[in-house]
Design goal:
This protein has three helices and eight strands, in the order E-E-E-E-H-E-E-E-E-H-H. It is an alpha+beta fold. The termini are far apart.
């Protein structure tokens, strides 16, 4: 069985340094990745509703709602500056919990997190993180940051 998931890379441009930063949160004790840092993600579950009409919003709205809601992984404090999140790419990967098909997204956020920390994205997000970043997240975090920076460069 392959687990369908969405990953959400929350990014911002630091107003003081101009550097792109990613919001990382730490996995809780008892989790398969306990103590490691990651970007928020959610499994797509059978009761999630898919948007089928143009203009209805992102087809993963229910999963994103679980991430961004007051009980979600981000637990308030930051809010997206645009909606829906931008899709980066799908990934098929083997993880510690088995095979996953994940659709990776990024979104610019505003505010200060109540959970997690913003870290600069540069040569290696792992070097800036408080401790180990989940290995399968490192590449797509850096790729999402490049896509975000390219998007910002084209905005007035």
């Amino acid at each position: 069985m392959v687990l369908p998931t969405v990953e959400l890379v929350p990014l911002r441009t630091n107003p003081d340094t101009g550097q792109t930063e990613v919001l990382l949160t730490q996995r809780p004790a008892g989790d398969i990745w306990a103590g490691e840092w990651h970007v928020p993600g959610a499994a797509v579950i059978a009761t999630d509703k898919a948007s089928v009409e143009p203009g209805e919003g992102n087809q993963f709205g229910d999963a994103f709602g679980r991430l961004l809601g007051s009980n979600g992984e981000l637990k308030a404090g930051v809010t997206p500056t645009h909606w829906p999140p931008r899709e980066l790419r799908p990934e098929l990967r083997m993880t510690r919990r088995g095979p996953e098909v994940s659709i990776v997204h990024f979104v610019e956020v505003d505010g200060e997190p109540k959970v997690g920390v913003f870290v600069p994205v540069g040569e290696s997000v792992e070097a800036a993180a408080p401790s180990k970043v989940i290995s399968q997240h490192v590449k797509f975090i850096n790729d999402a940051a490049r896509a975000y920076e390219a998007q910002r460069a084209t905005q007035p």
